[in-house]
């Protein structure tokens, strides 16, 4: 299975007819957050593939009095509008705090960044721990049914000490490090940490989990990480 994983920036090569060449053989689109609705909608429409996403700290939902009435995209540098109404969404499935199965692969999602100015989709460590605890029954159910908790975790922020930075907005979560030790996902996909150096580290293996910074976009062949043990 191949994934097109996008995060944080609109790539002009993907936001064009070239997307059907660049990502022609992907099976699923994954968004790690901080992307506008029009971009995700274009990817889904062009590739005709399912989309799983989590929100970043610069995404926010807009709740309207009537569905689709006055839907407005916010295209400035601060916020990206993601419509909350079920009848007017952009073709994706929000997997935050959910565990879903697709093509025999188990996905889980955890949105947001570390708390720094009390904006939407920002959490402190205790709040993130609570979110993981609320999701854990589904993970234990997977263990009973599939003999593993989860294969791929999708988050916006990285785990603490892995691809993160020292400032609060770009700090990773210690709760994610414990999640990796406890539930042992094969792959952890995140964004949030912008990469401007081609030689910067994108992939780090931690306790058997490949943590992948998906800033901009990555095409990932899951088979090389999951193997046959699924």
UniProtKB/TrEMBL annotation:
InterPro entries: Calcineurin-like_PHP (IPR004843), Metallo-depent_PP-like (IPR029052), UPF0046_metallophosphoest (IPR051693). It comes from the Bacteria. GO terms for molecular function: hydrolase activity. Gene3D superfamilies: 3.60.21.10. Pfam families: Metallophos. Residues 1-195 form the Calcineurin-like phosphoesterase domain. PANTHER family: CALCINEURIN-LIKE PHOSPHOESTERASE DOMAIN-CONTAINING PROTEIN, METALLOPHOSPHOESTERASE. This is Metallophosphoesterase.
